[in-house]
Amino acid sequence: MGPKVDDTSEITEADTLGISFSSRPVADGIIEALDRLGARVRGTSALEPLLQEFCQQAVATIPSSDMASITLVPERGTKLQTVAGTDARVLDIELDQYRVDEGPSVESARTAQVVRAGREEAKRRWPDFARRVAEIGVASYLSVPMSIDGVHVGVFSLYSRDDHGFAEIDDVLLQVFIAAVEGAVWKARREEEWKMEIAGLRAAMKSRGHIEQAKGMLMVVHAITEDQAFDMLATQSQRQNIRVTAVAAEIIRAFTGQSGT
Fold first, then answer.
1. pLDDT of residue 73
2. Residue 56: how many other CB atoms lie within 10 Å
3. Do 173 and 92 meet the contact criterion of CB atoms below 8 Å apart?
4. Average pLDDT of 180-209?
5. Are 143 and 108 within 8 A, CB to CB?
6. Would you say residue 105 has pLDDT above 90?
7. Strand pairing category for 140-148 and 67-72
8. Integer Cα distance of 36 and 29 in angstroms
9. Which candidate in 94, 170, 179, 182 could, as Cys together with 166 as Cys, close a disulfide (CB 3.0–4.6 Å)?
10. How far is Cα 67 from Cα 161, in angstroms, rounded to an integer?
11. What pLDDT band is residue 24 in, cutting at 50, 70 and 90?
12. Side-chain half-sphere exposure of 47, counting CA atoms within 13 A
């Protein structure tokens, strides 16, 4: 039989950090949840249902939380948008913050800082918001910013009916989920950018094809060079104050009866 291991120092260190040994299964649950969600991120491009799952899993695996929401800051503009939440009460909480322009999610979105507060601190920091949500019964708030490539993209928020104000360990546990959410948002936005780039490229290729087709028609009809044909298109474009591609479409339509679009 081997020597007895003295784990007193380990227990003391854990207590100092606010982590009890009973919280170890919580970490196991988070790892299992993230494994499942990671597979979903790789297998789907639908962002909002995925974010909804992240909220539900966060509440299911972080004992101190009762509700969760994800707020995104659009890439262009400053208007906040709640895209996921565990129940209707969360949406009411978020909407009340937008109406009075104060509250944990709004403050975290504005400052890109972690925001934690209990009931009394919430009354001091956001009095109008606190009055509006008093009937909902939320007593503790935790909002943590999310970023992609150094750019602030939103906030992941937890709410609790207990007045514990959330602890640093809750912030740490939520950060694990946030890393996965950031990956999902990055993937969705990159896919959207890719679709826009492909659409723009297709439009450019189609426009170029129309211009080349119209130039060829002008060259045959007027027995002119390619440069002269393009000059005719450019001149007509300036005269009508429309794009060269629109002039080309008109010429194609005139000669063939097709729309050229």
1. 82
2. 16
3. no
4. 63
5. yes
6. yes
7. unpaired
8. 11
9. 170
10. 9
11. very low
12. 17
